[in-house]
Amino acid sequence: PSRESLEQQIVARNGTQKNVHAIIKNQPFLMSLKLQGATNDFNFRTHKTSAVLVYDTPEEKEVDFVRKNPIQYECSAKDDSQGIATILQAEVKLIVLSSQHEDMFFRIKFRYCFGNNTLTALSEPIR
């Protein structure tokens, strides 16, 4: 079964306070996205959504990997009260990273692609 983050902590780093979510590697957790302005032609069922793991830095650099992608996810669209898929439920699992990543914070960057356009959503930091 999936759950949301294990706990949340307010952490100060580089003079900024952040709400950091603690997760357990290799254990699935849930994330939800809500699409504002969705229509029958523009919703989570009509276009592709992808996710990548990025470092919690202003550059949002993707975490490199050699063999195994450090993030696994499955997404399912949920309808709002008008029957439009405005909510995306993502079951996410982070795979073990190398020991050099031990004390780092990460974020999950979701990309919603439609035509030549892309909307992005960035999670709060996780560790």
Largest sheet: 3 strands, antiparallel
Mean of pLDDT: 86
Helix content: under 10%
Instruction: Count the E strands.
Output: 8
Low-confidence stretches: none
Order of helices and strands: EEEEEEEE
Helix tally? 0
User: How large, in whole angstroms, is the Cα Rg?
Assistant: 15 Å
The structure class reads mainly beta
Record the strand order, biggest sheet.
3-6-5
Shape, principal axes of CA atoms = globular
Fraction of residues in β-strands:
over 45%
Distance between the termini: 20 Å
What does this structure look like?
The chain is mostly beta strands and 127 residues long. It contains no helices and eight strands. The chain has a three-stranded antiparallel β-sheet, with no helix packed on it. A three-stranded antiparallel β-sheet has the order 4-7-8, with no helix packed on it.
